[in-house]
């Protein structure tokens, strides 16, 4: 069975619409994945949309040069719409344009060159007629610095339309499309490599104004926003936090320590409460030297902070900054913020609060536009002989009647392909073994006895309490058939329990196995050594706390991930370690098997998630783009996508086929610790340290619900087998059951909502809450619905 493309063992290649192919970088937050899944900036959902027209990367030891960068977010082939352009006129402007065109041609950025040429209404002959290429090169060299200063200086000036033939309008036309027609046109910038050189990253803070004026600038903007109309105030207030951070870092970088301290003390209290943890880190950066190794600072610098603002509010802000000649703030807006402008009514405070809170602002609307195949794959048809065998051993009358409806429904499901499902062979999946087919038949029989849940029929909850674990229980998993429980512990062991009367047995020694008749029907029983039978097996091998555990669907294997940076695969036949997967350099917080087995995903402190196959010792895909630890990972039910939740307070959905990030969900106000997909694959539920459970529509890329009630971190989430109920377990020692049917009905997913991201979340948590179940003093670490819809919960008792 072939795994995913072998050539991409280390990294996944993504072909961009413009420019050469680029590699997904192995580290997140390193400038490559400013807003998307670790792709370069020129993708349709890359961060900030900067195509850095730089020929300096790779030839000179990686020192970035000051070059002309054209900002564009238009997809390949689209013509950017001209924005407000600076006044132009002198022949010097024509030379400038020719220099830029020449530069784009040398850098092989053909599409950008064509777009610029079309905007300026220039023909090929015009360039040819302007002299030899050497002349243009020299013009380019002379003009580059002038161009940077002129365009940046003129950008805040009053906008006037240009005559058709002038060059400046072409330059600004392309740059203006960075975030809609009226985005701040940024032509001059430092081209930073994919792996940012720290000094290059920091050098952006060296263009600075009078340090004593910073407080005045910020106070002036604050006063302007607070005095603006209510409808604009909520939107413009989003600027406070990113501007505060960048102005503070600029003061620190330029060694104005006293001014920086005064600025921080005066304004840090104005920021939203969910930024308090970030501000605590920021307050420790008081000297230029502190900034060099600080990850938070580099994240903030390399990933543009995304703000979603209506056109009216944006024009209001732009007019104010131009009138006040407030270049300092305007430069930060251009340099470090990505303003995603939409047409229509400004959003209300409640709508904005629902979506903000992540380390890099909101997700761009473009980031959630790509098509996602969220439907389920066709169920394989189980052969009839297996059914017959099964029926013989059972009560003759009842079984066929009970099983046939299920069989028919599976048959009908396979005839009617889900329109939203991926092609069956989109990614290679393992063939079903005979034992898998038998398991599916058992599953069908269990399904006929499944309890239909709802508000009037809540499930029973069976709680497994780990005693004497001394805060040491760090991970739990339960097999799909609910026969085994595994626990990962802080003492670096993995312990496996049988929760059925059937004890755990190891395979016999090789010398004993040779004596067994391999043709006998009960050979699988005979190979087991009765002397080894016990309820508990302990697996030794890790050298640090075990933070993640996951059983394979066929119950033959167990994965565990640890603080020691490895993921281990254990055999549940011999209870020994088969493989240690080494790819992460830091603790691995979570790992999970695909619903079809064979593939698994891991995520850790190195900010990336990795996709593996059990028979490859190198990862098949590296999902890079998060700006902080990847805390939890989860496969979509069709195995074509992986969701990751991170300490950067975002959830990302990755395409297993090509490694692309296809969804970015923002809205949590704390690190995300739990994820679960609904059984039909349409929805995702996420839980975080903020105690909220958020519900997402994957197809439309929208938040569709918010469940409030928990008072501490939500550690575990699980939908019932038919998706009627969502169970959430928390560090507040409670399990809560929510009405999922009601939460997802009558969703507003019309074109306007999808286009603008205006979501109106009803305050209906109390109506959706079906029950709260307290433990005495046991945080709920794991939840599981059995095949008959009984809830199993697990946690370690922590004495008060």
From TrEMBL:
Principal location: nucleus
Annotated ranges, domain TFIID subunit TAF5 NTD2: 209-337
Domain of life: Eukaryota
Keyword Repeat assigned: yes
Matching InterPro entries: LisH, TFIID_NTD2, TFIID_NTD2_sf, WD40/YVTN_repeat-like_dom_sf, WD40_PAC1, WD40_repeat_CS, WD40_repeat_dom_sf, WD40_rpt
Family stated for the protein in its record: Belongs to the WD repeat TAF5 family.
GO cellular-component term (any): transcription factor TFIID complex
SUPFAM superfamilies, per database record: Taf5 N-terminal domain-like, WD40 repeat-like
GO molecular function: RNA polymerase II general transcription initiation factor activity
DNA-binding keyword on record: no
Listed PANTHER family: TRANSCRIPTION INITIATION FACTOR TFIID (PTHR19879), TRANSCRIPTION INITIATION FACTOR TFIID SUBUNIT 5 (PTHR19879:SF4)
Subcellular compartments: Nucleus
Organism of provenance: Piliocolobus tephrosceles (Ugandan red Colobus)
Gene field: TAF5
Ranges where the record places region Disordered: 1-69, 154-178, 384-438
WD repeat residues: 466-507, 539-574, 581-612, 623-664, 665-698, 707-739
SUBUNIT field: Homodimer. Component of the TFIID basal transcription factor complex, composed of TATA-box-binding protein TBP, and a number of TBP-associated factors (TAFs), including TAF1, TAF2, TAF3, TAF4, TAF5, TAF6, TAF7, TAF8, TAF9, TAF10, TAF11, TAF12 and TAF13. The TFIID complex structure can be divided into 3 modules TFIID-A, TFIID-B, and TFIID-C. TAF5 forms the TFIID-A module together with TAF3 and TBP, and in TFIID-B with TAF8. Component of the TFTC-HAT complex, at least composed of TAF5L, TAF6L, TADA3L, SUPT3H/SPT3, TAF2, TAF4, TAF5, GCN5L2/GCN5, TAF10 and TRRAP.
Entry protein name: Transcription initiation factor TFIID subunit 5
């Amino acid at each position: 069975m072939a795994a995913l493309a072998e050539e991409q063992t280390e990294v996944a290649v993504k072909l961009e619409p413009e420019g050469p192919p680029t590699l997904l970088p192995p580290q997140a937050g390193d400038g490559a994945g400013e807003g998307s899944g670790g792709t370069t900036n020129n993708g349709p959902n890359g961060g900030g949309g900067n195509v850095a027209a730089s020929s300096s990367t790779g030839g000179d030891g990686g020192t970035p040069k000051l070059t002309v960068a054209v900002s564009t977010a238009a997809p390949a082939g689209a013509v950017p719409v001209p924005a407000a352009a600076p006044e132009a006129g002198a022949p010097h402007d024509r030379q400038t344009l020719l220099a830029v065109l020449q530069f784009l041609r040398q850098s092989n950025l053909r599409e950008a060159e064509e777009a610029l040429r079309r905007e300026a209404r220039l023909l090929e002959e015009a360039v040819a007629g302007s002299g030899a290429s050497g002349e243009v090169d020299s013009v380019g060299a002379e003009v580059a610095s002038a161009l940077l200063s002129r365009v940046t200086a003129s950008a805040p000036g009053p906008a006037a339309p240009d005559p058709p033939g002038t060059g400046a309008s072409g330059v600004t036309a392309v740059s203006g499309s960075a975030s809609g027609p009226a985005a701040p046109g940024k032509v001059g910038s430092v081209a930073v490599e994919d792996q940012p050189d720290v000094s290059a990253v920091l050098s952006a803070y060296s263009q600075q104004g009078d340090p004593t004026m910073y407080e005045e600038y910020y106070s002036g903007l604050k006063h302007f926003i607070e005095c603006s109309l209510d409808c604009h105030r909520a939107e413009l207030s989003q600027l406070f936090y990113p501007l505060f951070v960048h102005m503070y870092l600029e003061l620190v970088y330029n060694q104005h320590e006293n001014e920086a301290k005064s600025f921080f003390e005066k304004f840090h209290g104005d920021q939203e409460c969910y930024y308090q943890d970030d501000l605590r880190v920021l307050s420790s950066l008081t000297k230029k030297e502190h900034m060099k190794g600080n990850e938070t600072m580099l994240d903030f610098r390399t990933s543009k902070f995304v703000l979603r603002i209506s056109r009216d509010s944006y024009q209001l802000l732009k007019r104010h900054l131009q009138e006040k000649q407030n270049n300092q703030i305007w430069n930060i807006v251009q340099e470090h913020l990505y303003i995603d402008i939409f047409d229509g009514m400004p959003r209300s405070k409640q709508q904005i609060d629902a979506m903000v809170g992540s380390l890099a602002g909101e997700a761009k609307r473009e980031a959630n536009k790509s098509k996602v195949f969220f439907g389920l794959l066709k169920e394989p048809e189980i052969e009839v002989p297996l059914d017959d065998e099964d029926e013989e051993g059972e009560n003759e009358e009842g079984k066929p009647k009970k099983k046939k409806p299920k069989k028919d429904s599976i048959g009908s499901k396979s005839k009617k392909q889900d329109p939203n499902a991926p092609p069956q062979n989109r990614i290679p999946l393992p063939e079903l073994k005979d034992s898998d087919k038998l398991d599916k038949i058992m599953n069908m029989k269990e399904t006929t006895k499944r309890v239909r849940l709802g508000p009037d029929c809540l499930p029973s909850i069976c709680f497994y309490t780990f005693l004497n674990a001394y805060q040491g229980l760090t991970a739990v998993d339960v097999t799909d058939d609910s026969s085994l429980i595994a626990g990962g512990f802080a003492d670096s062991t993995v312990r496996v329990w049988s929760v059925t009367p059937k004890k755990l047995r190891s395979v016999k020694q090789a010398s004993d196995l040779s004596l067994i008749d391999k043709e006998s029907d009960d050979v699988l029983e005979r190979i087991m050594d009765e002397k080894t039978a016990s309820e508990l097996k302990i697996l030794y091998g890790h050298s640090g706390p075990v933070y993640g555990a996951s059983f394979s669907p066929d119950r033959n294997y167990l994965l565990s991930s640890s603080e020691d940076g490895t993921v281990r695969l254990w055999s549940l036949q011999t209870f020994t370690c088969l493989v240690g997967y080494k790819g992460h350099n830091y603790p691995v917080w979570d790992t999970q098997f695909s619903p079809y087995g064979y593939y698994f995903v891991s995520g850790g402190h190195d900010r990336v998630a990795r996709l593996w196959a059990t028979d490859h010792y190198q990862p098949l895909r590296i999902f890079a783009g998060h700006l902080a630890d990847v805390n939890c990972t989860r496969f979509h039910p069709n195995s074509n996508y992986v969701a990751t939740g991170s300490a950067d307070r975002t959830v990302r959905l990755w395409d297993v086929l090509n490694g692309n990030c296809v969804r970015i969900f923002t809205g949590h106000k704390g690190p995300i610790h739990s994820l679960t997909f609904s059984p039909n694959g349409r929805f995702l539920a996420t839980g975080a340290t903020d105690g909220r459970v958020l519900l997402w529509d994957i197809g439309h890329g929208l938040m569709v619900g918010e469940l409030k009630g928990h008072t501490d971190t939500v550690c575990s989430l699980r939908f019932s087998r038919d998706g009627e109920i969502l169970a959430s377990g928390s560090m507040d020692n409670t399990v809560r059951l929510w009405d999922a049917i009601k939460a997802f009905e009558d969703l507003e997913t019309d074109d306007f909502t999808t286009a603008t991201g205006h979501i109106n979340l009803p305050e209906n948590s109390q109506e959706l809450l079906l029950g709260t179940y307290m433990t005495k003093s046991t945080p709920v670490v794991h939840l599981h619905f059995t095949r008959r819809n009984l809830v199993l919960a697990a946690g370690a008792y922590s004495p008060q």
